[in-house]
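ok trying this again, last paste got cut off
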Amino acid sequence: MPLSSEIVFALAAIVVFCLGLYGLIAYAHLVRKIMAINIMGSAVFLFFGAIARRNFDEGSDPVPQAMVITGIVVAVAATAFALTLARRIHAITGETQLPEEQSRP
């Protein structure tokens, strides 16, 4: 079975999403977590772009493309809001990391 461009892009999206998930879990720094969430969102946009071009003969499906454009706008707004919250948390607490959770006995 030859690899089509849709499969290659879908596999790349899965790899990029896993990298973003690793960054979200591994780091406690707020800005790194925000960047990891953006990387995961970019992977979802890449996956939508891959499935938009399923049938090469008929052209691409405009619905996933419209969802990607809308998603990019929402992601930019959510990132700006998250960075504003991170800056406010830093101004109040002086910390840029989330507190470690205490395990209960």
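PB: full thing came through this time. The domain at 5-93 is CATH 1.10.287.3510 (Helix Hairpins).
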